[in-house]
Amino acid sequence: MAALCWVAVWAAVGARRRRAVVLGLSLLGVVAAGFAAREGLRRAQPLAIVLNAATPVRVAPYGGASPASMVEAGAALVVERRYGAWLEVRRPDGVRGWVLAAEISRL
Question: Could you tell me if 12 and 24 lie in one domain?
């Protein structure tokens, strides 16, 4: 979309269109480029898939910590950081905590 707007801006300049048309197309191109950059950052996040049913997401990175919630097999998690054998994960629905690296598969 941003590339199409870029071409349209220069076509409008070449055809000597009104300044408002050129500025409008330029603004649309900048907005489209911003959305593309945001999507690129979202896709660059490290993801993991839960392997076992009812995998506990713990509040701290050790086995004795209480589970904050449970996630089912096949659930996608965003990996924040690693601490030994534990991974800090989060989900858009608010699930956040620590999972053993052996219980998930990183993509």
Answer: yes
Q: Is the pLDDT of residue 68 over 80?
A: yes
Tell me the C-alpha distance between 80 and 48, whole Å. Answer: 11
What pTM was computed for the model? 0.63
DSSP state of 62: S
| CB burial string 28-50: b at 16+ within 10 A, e below | bbeebeeeeeeeeeeeeeeebeb
Rounded to 5 degrees, φ, ψ at 41 are: -65, -40
Domain identity same for 79 and 39: no
CB-based contact 78:90 (threshold 8 Å): yes
- Residue in the block written with tokens 């598969």: 105
Task: Report the alpha-carbon distance of residue 41 to residue 35 in Å, rounded.
Answer: 10
Say whether both 69 and 93 belong to one domain.
yes
